[in-house]
Amino acid sequence: MNGPDLATFCEEINGGTSIGDTLLGQFINLAKGIIEQQRPWVILRSTDTSKTVQATNVSQWNVGIDLSGIARFNRFDDSDEGCAIKLFDGNQTFLKYKQVPFQRRLEHIQRPGTFTYDENAEQLYLNGNNPFAGTLYIDHIKDSEDIDISDQNSTWAFPSWSHALLGFYAVGIYKGGVDFDDINARMAPDNRAQSAAILAQLEKWDNEKVLQAQQGVDPYDRQQDGFRANAIHINE
Question: For the whole model, what pTM was predicted?
Answer without folding.
Answer: 0.79
